[in-house]
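User: Hi! I'm working on a homework problem where we have to compare a predicted structure to a textbook description. Could you give me the structure for the chain below?
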Amino acid sequence: MSRFHDLIDKFGDLPIPLSRSPRGGRASAVLMALTDENDSRIVLTRRALTLRFHPGQVSFPGGSLDPGETVVEAALREAHEEVGIEPAKVRILGELPDMSLAASESLITPILGIIGANEKPRVVDEGEVDSVFLPKLTTLADPEIRYTAMIPGSPYAGPAFHLEEAFVWGFTAHLLDGLLKVGGWERSWDQSKIIEVPGDYRRERSG
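Assistant: Happy to help. Predicted structure tokens:
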């Protein structure tokens, strides 16, 4: 587990091109849960297609803070409610800087944690989660699945991962891109490879 100990400090020095919200927003937290094994995996979910914000997009388990909760408590509670990760079985490494999502007016704090290699996250709350998958970090680092994502008619451009299970872009892809960099998993990839975000992965709101 020692290989994970300095990830938080390294993340703090990495410029991630996501807007920081000067005006605040709805406080939320997500859990970036890595498995404690040589070829580490990370827990990702595809959001339910019926959700109001970001339906069908790939995310980390998480959600809004309840009154009186810390960001760590919220991330652990949401991960337990959504994918069955027991809070007591998560070793928290620390918090990353708050980041904002304009579409949902959320101020999100990513929490980095470690779970056992034998943990089996699963869909618990079907109203929140469509599916759960745990790609290996070495798979995410494969140059063949890495692209620069774009949206027609939008200035957006950012990292993307075209996995068999799902298409990952936006907030989640930026954090994964940063994790690969600071953890030493990143491999050189062709950032000139452009891919359009599939329509069923880019809806900001349902309806």
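For your comparison, note the following. Residues 170-183 form the longest helix (14 residues). The helical segments are 7-12, 71-83, 137-140, 170-183. Good luck with the assignment!
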